[in-house]
Amino acid sequence: MSECLIYQLKPGKTVVGRLDSDKPAAILLSGDNILEEHCYFENTDGKVVIHCLPDSMTFLNGKRMAAGQSHKLRTGFRIILGDNHVFRFNNPEEIRKQRDRATAKSHLHLSLSAGDLVDAAAPESSPATRPDSPASSIDADDVDWTFAQREAAFARLGLDPTLDSLPDDDLNKLFEKVTKAKTFRENHLRSRSERPERPESSLSQAMTDDVWSETGRWVVPSEAATDDTSLEAPTTTSHFSPELGSGSGDGSGNGNLKDVQSQLETRLQVINSSEGSKEAEDLKIEKEHMEHQLRLVRTQMKRLIDARSRGEETELDQLGFVEPVIYSARQLRLIRKVLDRWRAHRSFSMAEVVLSNAVSIKEANVISKELGKQVIYNFTISSGGTLAAPSSAVDTIAGLDQFGDVSDPVLRSATQPSVAVKVLDKRHDAIYVWSLDRMQQQLQRMRNLTTYIDRPSYTQHFSSDEPFYDSPPPEYSFIGNALISLAPLSRRLSSTSTVPIFCRYTAEAIGSCRVDIKLVNVVLSPPKHANAANGHGHTISGSSASQIPGVVPPGSKLSFFLTVDTVKGLSHHDFSAVHLQVRLSSFVGPSLAAEEVFPSTAVDLESSSMSELRFRRSFSIVASSKTLVNLRQGYAPIEFFATVTPTYLERMERWDEMREQKHHVPPRSSGSNSPSSSSDNRSILPHMRRSETDFVVEQTHDVVAWVQLCELGPDGQYAPVPVLSQGALDPGSFSLHQGLQRRIVISLSSNSGQQFPWTEFTKVRIGNVRMLDTKGRVHESASKSLVTLPLLKEQRSEFKPDGTGSLFGQALWDSSVHDSLLLNQVTPANQRVLLQLTWAAAVDTCADPVQFSLDLAITMGTRDARPPSKLFNFFGGTKILTKSSSLFRVRLSPPLTRSAKDLWRLDTAEKYVRGEESLGVWKPRGISVVEDYSRLISMEQRAADVQAVRVILTTVPARTVQPDAIGWRAEELVRKSLTLWQRRFGHHGNIILSQEPSEEEPFSSKTFMGSDSLDGLKLASETKIIPRSDSATKKGHLLILTDAGQGIWEKRWFVLKRPHLHMYTRSNELEEIGIVTLTGVNVESDPLKESLLGKPFSFTLFTASNSHAFAAPSFKEKQSWVAKLDPTRLPS
Predict the structure, then answer these.
(1) Could you tell me which residues are beta bridge partners of residue 813?
(2) Where is the PH domain positioned along the sequence (predicted)?
(3) Quick one: CATH architecture of 12-166?
């Protein structure tokens, strides 16, 4: 075959040669620069590879192939042989597969390279057809020739043949991407010049080279070439990824997000390419940081797209997108160091937690005292890390703590000191620690025992002991620890020291022990230039290492022997049996994958002496970079556990009482050297009880919400539609009609009155349409967005004389704006349409409006559909109501105090808890527990540092001083000693914590409440809907005092459903008018109050938020109501 238009490549080898040559060839060509053996094609299993022979002029896609170079051919590749022969390679099987794949996949993610710009310029062309040539004036027969020639010419000049054919928009986008790539390469080269020791990776060089230059040509390696079934060209993520760069139509915010994501992904590839450098650890830190930033960007992109799909306005639209900042490894280390130092100052935040949760600890002790559980709760500080939640390994071995690792995950995962709860379990003779989260869970279970004490059907499902103790309680309790510094070990020094044993609960030394660390050897890692055949590292014995102190090199293996003995101070009066244990993470650091604990043998102090308690074990650890940091800066605790006696628990209880009473002793005046007697008398007088308005504490309010849907009637008035409720647990379904105007009426009521000063509704929204079928399954619809409804100006906010408050508002609702078939069509029988209704109410004491949300159920009927028959009220549990009610619990949390002088305002220790009289002089620990912990940390670390410095100084050789130099250096030595003695190390500023206001702080709240700082003390709200209850404890008629000034009593029907008392107008329970929350309930009844109220058989109900006066029809009914309202009340 010679000089033909089409050449069929048969399986095997096809040689291209010269027409007038004697050498055999399958394809014979003539012309300039055609050799006798020019090149050959190799066809194997449908894959064709071109091989360039020496001295031949062969061009592939405009690039000249080097001698001996081979390349796999794909459909559309252009080949120039010699000066005049231009070919285009086609693979029919590949074209067929591309067409099939293109049908199933419409969007192709192709890397934008020089050879692919033609496809980008003509996206509508078939994958099997060649793109349009720039030389449009030339005949179609000459197109391949002209295109390939121009491609080769432009390549030699460093240009691209398709640039002049691209539209202006594509050229602008391309210019922006090239500019980004050039900027990134300049920044990367600048950072490389600042750190010349980092080698440049081949991948990063390939990514930052100009893709239009000769050296920047993209050549696919043989192992990266795709098979014939792949439609996408082999790509690498770069700045020119069209799926990240094209942001047209998405808005500026979305475009910025995509640009940032593209830059982050590119830098990540640069980091991944340099894993083998000596700064691999720095690169790993930067990689983790950039991956985190990339995840944030992707999350914002997803949130932005979802919000815009729902038609909602996002924060990015309002504030604009803030690009994440990428820090270097050195900057990240500095940031983390500053943050760690800042997080270490936790005294102020822990004091806030202690004061704000004091009332919960008091309530738990009251319940424990009333039920006789023999357990006392109080605050303590849990150290982070290995001492966050220490547990005995002996208990674990015995199977007593098989689930201990997951019983309190919050406490065990803590890395910083945190406030915890100390449990003095006198029933099981144990002491252990709970996190505050677990304490709140246990407290709720304790409340259930008292709330449902008169309902055996409920209490039979509650364990009477589980809320108060650990299950099972530990046999060995953590009593203290000794702390040793690891600094000598990091310097390859053996050490022997006597270390005090500190109690974590009292911050006092309760004993001592001798700790001996003997260095066995250090196996150094072989240097990189060492002979590869020598597989052994250099070993340094313990004696030589002690004589020549030096740091442990990274990668070496450190072996040492740990001995703990000579334990003193632990008395058999306090402890029955004692053992100690050591954790491997104490030496390796928190980076240890799996924790290992090594306990000693337990010693029975009744039959053995303390001298038998000892621990001996050898350790071998690999000194990684993180391990070396822990050895240089860390401490290793030696934990002590014991079976405690009742004497020890009683002393712990007395310690808390003594420490708290000592802390509350009023200080004597020190303003003058000779204070007067009157001044002394005033200083020892107890302070007046402060007003509750002075405190800023967490508040809880119960709010009942009634929702009505009103439709326009023939008389032009809006009337509420009937609500069909099928039981006590069913809030009801609104019966609507097609094509009528509607209004949503929301009424709120609260027993808190002025304590919860709401003013108006600020926003009402409805949406998220769903279908609830007959089997209780919820079917989603396309209408998920929430629509804001216009509010009418007629809103009423009222605070009544009985201490209750109400808020009323209306909103217009046009159901057609949802464009949902579920709302437009008639609802099938026994099915409901669910909608989400949310509203916000402005409250004076809250920083932001309080948010409420609930689900409404409706059934859409025809225009002339009849309302449900009222006969339903007489059959079964079905009722026809005029409104749907829901109960919400609003939790108002105080903000963080801004200064130490306002810390006392968070104190809840004085907040009244019903039954607190049984506690006597007991008080929850205050900020003294934080001060004790700070003092403990300072003492034990200082003691460990002294022992470590003493060991290091003994290895320093003594310097000989000439006798004549002592005289003139004596004064300098004294001056230097005094300077060091007077110098203050550590932090120069200390935060003074106090539970009492300063002397210049007025006790009246007028100045405080009237100051400009009121806005900064607004509360944060959190709302939760309370599930409905279906069983009532008691029902009946009672008289309630609605206006004490006018002496107005009204007869109401009351239904007691713990923990709430529901109030109705009539006994049919169709119209609910109020709910009384029985939190902290206290009922009082005596003849004097009856005569004062002027009603026989009256009693007063006190709750945490209000008080109510009731009158029963008879003495028997009165006694029954009092017993049901307060089951814990002793009969009188």
Answers:
(1) 742
(2) 1031-1130
(3) Sandwich (2.60)
